[in-house]
Design brief:
Layout: E1 14-16, H1 27-32, H2 34-40, E2 47-52, E3 55-60, H3 63-70, E4 76-78, H4 81-90, H5 99-109, H6 115-120, H7 122-132, E5 141-143, H8 144-161, H9 167-189, H10 193-197, H11 201-226, H12 233-241, H13 254-285, H14 287-300, H15 309-313, H16 316-328, E6 335-339, E7 343-345, E8 348-350, E9 355-358, H17 360-364, H18 407-424, E10 425-428, E11 449-454, H19 473-479
Parallel strand pairs: 1-2, 3-9
Antiparallel strand pairs: 2-3, 4-6, 5-11, 6-9, 7-8, 10-11
Protein name: Cytochrome P450
Family: Belongs to the cytochrome P450 family.
InterPro entries: Cyt_P450, Cyt_P450_E_grp-I, Cyt_P450_sf, Cytochrome_P450_monoxygenase
């Protein structure tokens, strides 16, 4: 006769982060050593109180509690310092809108991100990837970050505007986004409005970039209204603005059309570009992982062609490289929520209007979920590998009903781009390990410069020789100061709401927190 085993409820721990400075709180630590600060918090508790300027906030450090927050959007709604700042840029678009309006907006945009639509864009993505490296020359330095931003701008503009974003406007969009992304992070960790109303050069640049970006999008909308209809996302939005979408989503206002386009531009361009730049930085520091990737690409893309959906499904190792990059260096690394009512989290009473934070970077670097969390090891994502049981800790695209709508789109774009570029080029560091980038609004190398080497086919002598094996993230960070050309001046987001499949044993691919 067996007896029922009593289930013991987990005892959560709470604490306070160390090092509070008068007026600034923990903003100095977040600005000066943000990643180290985040990694120190789980030792303080499962929920840790931090100060953002004079404002109290609570960092959620355990993946189960983060899922509790993300899957209860009525209680933990989009809000807090990050979204307060983003609304000035993106209005109430899909990423920033309150819970009550999210379902309507998501239903309107979802058809653009279905697996069938994304699959149909695979070759277009490959063509954009091929175009950015057409001007590269053997042995010459390559501004990888700029190339990846150009690539994602091209792909995103094809999705939104059918390619009507000409070269001049694309360059203007990239310039505006660079200024905006740099300015968002400091506005998040130091939520003191008076500081950002001062007429400083940085504040003027930021406000000017926002105005110019809005103006560019308004011009594109006006031109489309005067021209022929097109089957792209702008066309879908304009149809909805006229009340003819037929999806019972309700008509969009003129302002909402612009808000959605700016939202998808920022998230579609910035986050995926940072992920791709991080991929090539990590491969330059880890020749064994690079060699394994090249072997797969040489086998699947033997003729050097752009991959289609069929070839993409066979690029398992390439997908593992992208997934491990998203784990080690998630572009969206810190997010906020706002409580809509008094509630309890891990035994901690939170008042209505409390700021709650969670960090994919923090979760992805928990050694209880990912052994040797500072090491770049794509093999951990092999079927049945060590990451198989760590899915709840892997959140590059959020979770719940606000999960990124563009997750599948972003993963397809990243895998395709890595396959096309790495099939033909090897990018190596000019001198020494690259180290870890310093985050701002997003995490990724903002000024990554590598040297391009054309790859020879195995039949012609094999891939170019690789440099010595790279170090882990922490060793590279502390043993080598930032080099010229390595990203150390980074700004926190990208679109999170659409197609290869999600990583086989890890996160699903979608997210609206980018």
């Amino acid at each position: 006769m067996s007896e029922a085993v009593p289930v013991t409820e987990r005892v959560w721990t709470t604490g306070v982060a160390p090092g509070i400075f008068p007026f600034f709180g923990h903003a100095i630590a977040l600005l000066s050593r943000p990643l180290d600060f985040l990694e120190s918090l789980p030792a303080r508790g499962d929920v840790v109180e931090v100060r953002l300027g004079p404002r109290r906030a609570w960092m959620v450090c355990h993946p189960d509690l983060v899922h509790q927050v993300l899957k209860d959007p009525r209680t933990f709604d989009k809000g807090g310092p990050l979204y307060d700042r983003l609304r000035g840029l993106m209005g109430d678009g899909l990423v920033t809108c309150p819970h009550d309006d999210h379902r309507r907006q998501r239903r309107l945009l979802q058809p653009a991100f279905t697996p069938a639509r994304v699959s149909a864009l695979t070759r277009l993505m490959g063509e954009e990837a091929a175009s950015v490296c057409r001007s590269w020359r053997p042995g010459r330095r390559v501004d990888v970050t700029a190339a990846m931003v150009a690539l994602t701008t091209g792909v995103t503009s094809r999705l939104l505007f059918s390619g009507s974003l000409d070269a001049g406007r694309a360059a203007a969009v990239r310039a505006c986004l660079a200024v905006v992304v740099r300015g968002l992070f400091v506005r998040t960790v130091v939520p003191v409005d008076a500081l950002f109303r001062l007429p400083t050069p940085g504040n003027r640049r930021y406000r000017s970039a926002v105005r110019r970006l809005h103006g560019l999008v308004d011009t594109l909308i006006a031109e489309r209204r005067r021209g022929a209809p097109r089957d792209d996302l702008l066309g879908t939005l304009l149809t909805a603005a006229g009340g003819g979408d037929g999806a019972d989503t309700g008509p969009l206002t003129e302002r909402e059309v612009r808000d959605q386009l700016v939202t998808l531009l920022l998230t579609g361009v910035e986050s995926t570009a940072m992920c791709l730049a991080s991929v090539f930085a990590l491969l330059a520091d880890h020749p064994e992982a690079e060699r394994t990737l090249h072997e797969e690409l040489d086998a699947v893309l033997a003729d050097g062609s752009v991959p289609g959906p069929g070839e993409l499904a066979r690029l398992a190792r390439t997908r593992d490289v992208v997934t491990e990059t998203l784990r080690l260096r998630p572009p969206g690394w810190l997010f906020t929520r706002l409580t809509t009512r008094e509630t309890e989290l891990a035994g901690c009473r939170l008042p209505r209007g409390a700021t709650v934070l969670y960090s994919p970077y923090l979760l992805h670097h928990r050694d209880t979920a990912f052994p040797e969390p500072d090491r770049f090891r794509p093999e951990r994502w092999l079927p049945g590998g060590e990451a198989a049981g760590a899915g709840r800790a892997m959140l590059p695209f959020a979770a719940g009903s606000r999960k990124c709508i563009g997750d599948t789109f972003a993963m397809t774009e990243a895998v395709t781009a890595v396959a096309v570029i790495a099939r033909h080029w090897r990018l190596r560091a000019p001198a020494g390990p690259l180290g870890r980038p310093r985050p701002a609004a997003t995490l990724g190398p903002r000024t990554l410069v590598l040297v391009g080497e054309p790859r020879t086919r195995p039949a012609e002598g094999g891939p170019a020789s690789a440099p010595p094996h790279g170090r882990n993230e922490r060793q590279a960070r502390h043993a080598h100061p930032p080099r010229q050309g390595a990203s150390q001046d980074i700004p926190l987001t990208g679109p999170q709401d659409a197609a290869p499949k999600a990583p086989r044993t890890g996160p699903t691919t979608a997210g609206d927190d980018v």
